[in-house]
């Protein structure tokens, strides 16, 4: 009784489909395609209806007929025919079922259906729905998702409502985010991927982490079929594009592995190692090949040869060099943008120009306008000058001029990237700095602190000979400690440096003379 009540309740949802089939009986080719539709199969199975029965059927008496509904000619044609020209027993015989079951199985078994005709309980077998995200087509065959009905559609999932624009509201399938999920990929049925490239990278990552080798049986823009390379391993992942969407979705997934972990994993390729260890190689470009190979083997938990480590390092450094070349090519655009943001900014770029060749970068000086005006307005005329080496594939040095603000914190005033330190470069740097700060009278009233940089003292004699020069105590102590080691002499040196008046300075120097006259 329950099954009959369910079928009656379901009649409202299938009357329109049956009317169309009765009105225009399909031909053999169209009928074979129509039977692949899950919604049509469930409807016809529930009513025990075949193609031949539909052709001989009459419109139900309780259903309003169309005004131009044709009856006599077509019905008499099929009733008087002993044989149908396109009759195929597999599809047309109402006693034949492609699953080997009787058409009347619904009436013989105690089963329950909901109002959509879906199996919800009872002794009968469960019918597959889109909730299982099953793929009816063979994974190696053609994908017939375009012919699937509403119940098996990727877009019209059970429990989701379709809006007025045809889009599904509240999609319950998870989406794979490569930025957050790639370090530890986790797959599940129905998971969606933006591109096949992302899915292939995720499969490679999880295969390397778990220690098995993946075999891509099918891999194109529409479908990806992956199995485990080990013999008799049941792992399987099949994904294809969703209906009406350029999105890849997992349709079949069996995560079980019965194979052992492999030490020689062919999924580990040079591009993978380059991408994974590019930042570490960038920070340590002198990393030896043997040490790098050991670090990579420990990281991926598989053997990485010295040749692979060497090629990965070479590719990472080449990528870094290419990135730097692209940045140097747009250095004038960078300067123009700084001047656009602050017209008071000073930028000076020097290049070597050779005939028939592109310009070669030499040095660049930058003094931001806001920092320049702020230093002029409220900072003391004391500057520290220093330089450091740049650790990149092109080398070079960075020169800086740093002051102190009213809170006694550093105020980076100007900086320059140069090829090396010498008198000519320091002269060029000090000349630009004097123009930006409007230093007059050959530097009178200004104090500069340095660590005796190469070529700096001759540059001051040429640009600002009247400026006061002081030296960094930290660098003085480095040389002082070689001749007079020990904490006592170190503390006394700092006491002399911290003296704020001449009398205190003379007092501390007397104490140092008592400790060691030669100091």
Task: Walk me through the structure.
The protein is an alpha+beta fold. The protein folds into 5 domains: 2-127, no CATH class; 131-160 and 170-267, no CATH class; 270-329; 331-471, no CATH class; 475-515, no CATH class. The chain is built from 19 helices and 16 strands. It has helices spanning 2-23, 28-35, 38-47, 51-56, 72-80, 89-92, 105-108, 178-181, 196-210, 270-283, 289-300, 306-329, 331-341, 369-378, 423-437, 456-463, 473-483, 487-497, 502-515, and strands at 111-113, 119-122, 161-162, 168-169, 192-193, 214-219, 223-228, 236-241, 248-254, 346-352, 360-367, 382-389, 397-404, 410-418, 447-450, 468-471. The strands form 4 sheets. The protein has a 7-stranded mixed beta sheet with strand order 10-11-14-13-12-15-16, sandwiched between helices. Strands 5-9-8-7-6 form a 5-stranded antiparallel beta sheet, with helices on one face. α10 crosses α12 (306-329), α11 (289-300) packs across α12 and α15 (423-437) packs across α16 (456-463). The longest helix is centred in the middle third of the chain and has 24 residues, at 306-329. The chain starts with a helix and ends with a helix. The model is unreliable at 45-113, 115-119 and 121-170 (pLDDT under 50).
Annotation keywords:
519 residues, alpha+beta, 5 domains, 7-stranded mixed β-sheet, 16 strands, 17% strand
| Structural classification | alpha+beta
Q: What is the count of helical runs?
A: 19
Total strands: 16
Give the neighbour order of strands across the main sheet: 10-11-14-13-12-15-16
Rounded to an integer, what's the Rg over CA atoms?
A: 41 Å
Global geometry: elongated
Largest sheet, in brief, is: 7 strands, mixed
Instruction: Give the N-terminus to C-terminus distance in angstroms.
Output: 112 Å
Query: How many structural domains?
Result: 5
Which regions contain 5 or more consecutive residues with pLDDT less than 50? 45-113, 115-119, 121-170
In percent, how much strand structure appears in the residues? 15-25%
| Multimeric state | single chain
Helicity, as a percent range: 40-55%
What is the overall pLDDT average? 75
